[in-house]
Amino acid sequence: MFLHKRISLVVGLFCALIATFFVASPHTHAQALQAQQATTNTYNVTIQGSIDNGLATFTNTGTLVINVPASQGSSNQFDLCLNTGGSEVALSGNANVGDISLNSQTGCFPGAFTTSVDLGSVTFDSQTNTATLQVVPLASGTNANVIDTTGAGFESIISGGMSVQFTDQGVNGQIQVGASDSAFNPEQPDTYTATVTGTLVS
């Protein structure tokens, strides 16, 4: 009986230590992925870049959310959800030049879609703590992944993706996508290139 109580105490202390570690660590999402522990982390990010090689420049703020595990029905291990001004699905109007919605799954928009659709494929390099999202062109018709090139309307992202590295200081990375106002018959897509920097807030 004494041995059983001692083991229970040790297990309890270990679980408490693990819980504290996952809350405090800046690599929570990576550790949770490796341990298959459900968690959601949110980063406040700044996105700075240009459209069509400098035709327009921008500095916008938004959020990067990492959901582990991924949404139900997703083929990815976890979801990446990046949003500044939202998208045609999540937000109407009040957009700025350079606003972007770049997500791996329609599950990034709870309640907005009746079906689960993979918007991108996600990979993770545990050696460099880097997550990469590559968009699925055929999913562009959902208008869930979009950019604003003029401040007056959205274009569907049809190619490219983003890569983000998580560090003790937060997150940093690159976005490079192509977008068109005709998702099903794109002619010459607009190019969107930006850097991402941010800090963990939850």
Q: What is the topological layout?
A:
Elements (H helix, E strand, L loop, with lengths): L1 H23 L3 H8 L3 E13 L4 E13 L10 E5 L16 E4 L16 E6 L4 E6 L10 E3 L5 E14 L2 E11 L9 E11 L2
Antiparallel strand pairs: 1-2, 1-10, 2-3, 3-4, 4-7, 5-6, 6-8, 7-8, 8-9, 9-10
Helix pairs in contact: 1-2
Protein model, in words:
- The chain has 202 residues and is α+β, with helices and mostly antiparallel strands.
- It has one domain (2-200).
- The chain contains two helices and ten strands.
- An eight-stranded antiparallel beta barrel has the order 1-2-3-4-7-8-9-10.
- A hairpin with a 4-residue loop joins strand 1 (39-51) and strand 2 (56-68).
- Helix 1 (2-24) crosses helix 2.
- It is globular and about 45 Å long.
- The protein starts with a helix and ends with a strand.
- Mean pLDDT is 79; it is low at 1-26.
